[in-house]
Amino acid sequence: MSEENNDISGRVRLHDLQILSDRHYTLREASFDFQRRDGAWQHQKRECYDIGDAAAVLPFDRRHGRVILIRQFRWPVYEWGDPHLLIEVVAGKLDGDPPEICVAREAVEEAGAAVSNLRLVTHCFVSPGAVKERVSLFLADYDSTAARAQGGGHEHEGEDIEVLEMTLDAALKMIESGEIVDMKTILLLQAAKLLSAP
User: Fold this and answer.
1) How does pLDDT run across 145-157, given as a tens digit for each residue?
2) Mean predicted confidence (pLDDT) in 85-89
């Protein structure tokens, strides 16, 4: 089905959009009618958590087969019942910047790494049933033999980030072992593997 044929803007009639909470991010409840495939209109209510768009990057030294990841505390993962720090790619909120600027900034702030040759892998929605967030995913080059800044994030934002540097193969094995469970990280590591395939 083409993107043009998949346009459903004429099948949604918004009645009300109410803010339920706007403390750190914004939680809204939408009241709308949706036209089903059989032509019938159905009234629905849905809550949507608006956390802003984000971007993520995997610094990848293709020559040496190395990648940079980070490890940090994530409350939702802990609340779910996983008592481990989460291993992730570098990521951050756009805060009004283009995704390319965001990931270059976050690579330095979180991992102390200068990245170049950004390559967009995709834009994706990670949890579209409840969260309004589009994440732009990038691969980027870095030099694993070059000196790096400290990284670690910003303490005043509650960040306490450990920088991990390893081979791509070691990172991929951590997906198999269940040590890496973050979706954007799994996707970017798989993309790096495809890029490095002969």
Assistant:
1) 987 877 776 666 6
2) 97
Q: Do 138 and 120 contact (CB within 8 A), yes or no?
A: yes
Classify residue 62 as exposed, middle or buried by CB count within 10 Å of its CB (0-12, 13-18, 19+).
Answer: middle
What are the residue boundaries of the structural domains of the chain, listed by start?
9-50, 54-196
CA–CA dist 154, 162 (Å, integer) = 12
Q: Angle at the Cα of 27 (from 133 to 129), degrees rounded to 5?
A: 50
Contact status, residue 82 vs residue 190, Cβ threshold 8 Å: no
Closest CA to 87 of 181, 187, 173, 176: 181
Q: Which amino acid is at 138?
A: F
Distance CA(167)–CA(170), nearest Å, equals 5
Nearest residue to 67 via CA among 121, 138, 144: 144
Give the global pTM: 0.90
For 54-196, CATH gives: 3.90.79.10
Residue carrying the six token digits 């009241």:
31
Q: Please, which residues bridge with residue 134 across strands?
A: 125
